[in-house]
Amino acid sequence: MAYRLVFTEQFLEDISKLDHSVKVVVKKLYDKIEQNPKHFKPLHGDANVYRVRILNFRLIYKVRGDEVLMMRFEKRSRAYR
Fold it and tell me: How many domains does the chain have?
């Protein structure tokens, strides 16, 4: 089952600030997340919220039914605030 990615305004803002090389890595992950979003590490205490480590960044998303809500993409030091 393929999931549909939905991007929050905050996520799009986070991505727009990145270097092109990091954006390329993030876009490659989209296919993996669409195919199996529950493959990645879940956040403790948050049901259906997951994180992916990319370099010094964290991509945080939530699985809702057949959608994946892409919530944040921040440096690790700021991602969990």
Answer: 1
CATH for 52: 3.30.2310.20
CA distances in angstroms from 36 to 2, 10, 14, 18, listed in the order given: 8, 23, 23, 25
Domain for residue 80, yes or no?
A: no
Residues 6+ apart with CB under 8 A from 60: 43, 49, 50, 51, 71, 72, 73, 74, 79
Section 20-26 average pLDDT:
90
* Entry pTM: 0.87
